[in-house]
Amino acid sequence: MASKRKPIKYVLPALLFLLILVALCATRRPNTEFPRDKLYQLVPWVWSTRVENHDLQSLSSERACADGSIDRHNAPTVTPEIPRTVHFTWGLKGDGAFTFALYLAIRAAQASIRPAALKIHYTRLDRDNRWFQALAPNLTLVYHDPAEYLDAAGFGAQGSSRQWHVAHVADVLRLQILRDEGGIYLDSDAYALQPLDGVLRGARDVVMAHEGGNRYGMANAVVVAKKGAPFVERWLGEYATFDEQDWNWHSVVLPKRLADQHPLEICALSPTAFFWPLWTESHVEYMHVRLTDDEADEVKARVERYGGALYADQLVYHAWSHNSFQRFIERLTPEIVRTEDTRFNILMRRFLPPDE
Fold first, then answer.
1. In which element (H, E) is residue 18 found?
2. What values do phi and psi take at 329, rounded to 5?
3. What are the tens digits of pLDDT across the range 16-65?
4. Beta bridge partners of 192
5. How far apart, in whole angstroms, are the C-alpha atoms of residue 11 and residue 31?
6. First-residue to last-residue Cα distance in the chain
7. CA 222 to CA 227: how far, in whole Å?
């Protein structure tokens, strides 16, 4: 008769697997503010879950970068402070239609940063648009020919560079602008919520923020830099090996690698400073879901407590338009932002046109 004890040999491996699973779950640092209603959030080793694990605590070095108190290390050829010039890029491809969402981003920069100049670097621009006309008196327009700036960066030999996605074209142009002028680069879906006075003191030549609760990268949607900063020059040079199929290597992963290699050239802020909440499905929905009256009151009180932000150390909210624009932001109007209580709308209300 066959032994009935044979299946026991599978018990120990099964128990070991369960112990490993429990240990992995125990290492998670969830932010209980976000609902855990997505399937991927139940699996601790899924990438989206790993980047969502953040306790909203900044490191001491990140706080010192934000308030400008970190030890000063600057290249010998740069200015002591970072210029209070804000740069946006727009219409590098497509028709250059000026959207209400872009209007809000520019108004947020004007109100929060109080720039000495605000420049729109463009190839195509709809100047008849009402949102553009409302802002035009306070904008400096700078035309760019893609052939010229791609060739100037040394990418003319890459025949495919002119077919790059607009996001990658903008990746190159923003670094050229910062190298040549310095200042504050903001993506068109980056909404400044607080002054950047501490950052602009220039203790380091470049300031960026981590992306992800696990700090796996440093996104280029917001970059603050001095003219001629060696970090920017080195980063721009890496585009000679650009691979369009590797979507975020040069824009997120590489700057983190360079920062680890050259830590005195850059200040790294916490994920909350520029890039929280994240691009994940649950985080995007969190920012745009309709709130109950009690939830809206709590969010409004928090925004007032933190001077216009959702978190104590939040300086900018990046809206991750590739995941949020068509689902949520494209439909927005001044009336919707004013009357519908979502976290995004509550943040944006102070930037609405004064006559609407």
1. helix 11-26
2. -80, -35
3. 766 655 454 444 444 557 666 665 555 555 556 678 888 889 999 999 99
4. 316
5. 34
6. 86
7. 16
